[in-house]
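Sync notes, pocket subgroup
Present: LS, DG
LS reminded everyone that the earlier model was apo-only. Rerun requested with flavin mononucleotide included. Inputs:
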Amino acid sequence: MKKMDEAVTFRRGLTLKNRIVMAPMTTKMSFYDGVVTQDELNYYSLRTGEVGAIITAAANVQEVGKGWEGELSAASDEMIPSLSRLASAIKRNGTKAILQIFHGGRMTNSKILRGEQPVAPSAIAAEREGAETPRELMEAEIPLLIEDYRQATVRAIKAGFDGVELHGANTYLIQQFFSPHSNRRSDQWGGSVEKRAHFIELLVDRVTGAVDEYAEKGFIVGYRFSPEEYEEPGIKMADTMYLVDLLANKPLDYLHISLNDYQRVSVSKAFQEKSMLAYVHEKIAGRVPLIGVGDVRTGKQAEEVLEEAELVAVGRALLIDPHWTKKVLSGKEDTIRTVLPFEDRDELLIQNGVWGFLQGMMPERLV
Ligand SMILES: Cc1cc2nc3c(=O)[nH]c(=O)nc-3n(C[C@H](O)[C@H](O)[C@H](O)COP(=O)(O)O)c2cc1C
């Protein structure tokens, strides 16, 4: 069995000292223009050094891709010094720094975009209260959008990151291209599952191509995806099996599933014999490492994830206890902090926006 403290080396040569990574988590702490703040650097400093890698909060690749206030930006060259400070804060004691790059697509609004209408594959609003109808991207805009992900990747290289993760999960723009709910296009970018995957294919080719051209050996590219949507029509496990197969044949360094519970079983009847994580791992069949995630609170749970994945991502447990990794790896699990008292928020550098988010996700652990 794979052990949590075993090193792992990716296709492009980067080695992580162990198999635990900090899951990407939005901090809502950046300045209005996406520049990293000192509080945010302190937040990462508090949590680095023990995990193999930290995947940062989502950073937008285009101004119109900004999803929320306090979000990081990788949308212009002016952001390179900010990104550079972030990479240095994370890269301590052997921990590697991976920048998650993102575009909100229809999951943002004109207030956050200072009056501009959000853009998406089609002019279809998300099924959530208050969702605005986005503007459909013109065909000619789509290659430019892919170019912006490529440029954000080059900025991450220049800033000293060890890799980028393409945020293709959690209903944001990349996923919106793959989803039959948000993508109703009838051109080369929409229609069949193959056409809905076309954006992702090209994006991955352009980004990995830029890395192979500009980066020194050791800079990695990962891809994160959500396995299913509840909307009708929506992404189902059968679509995900298609996408995972396609991605596993690309020169990516890892795939990263997005789940709130690593044991979650699909809603699709044909995929209910085991967890979605297990189905995805089986489909990949060793072609590329997989990161599993979802409500891991103990070492035993992390080891269970490693039965169906090569790495395990830990999110909320590291928000509550920044030294979760050291405690788990040294057998001191009884000292892990499991609840978060309101008055400890400042010490742990958890801001209002994230506290509000946690209230929705795990009210029983906030005291
Ligand atoms: C406060 C917070 C912010 C998050 N922000 C992001 C994000 O920016 N990008 C992303 O891919 N996932 C994000 N997630 C999802 C996590 O990466 C992770 O998949 C989820 O929290 C489940 O893991 P956990 O149970 O270990 O927290 C966020 C989760 C939390 C709790």
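DG: The chain has 13 helices and 13 strands.
LS: The domain at 8-365 is CATH 3.20.20.70 (TIM Barrel).
Action: DG to write up.
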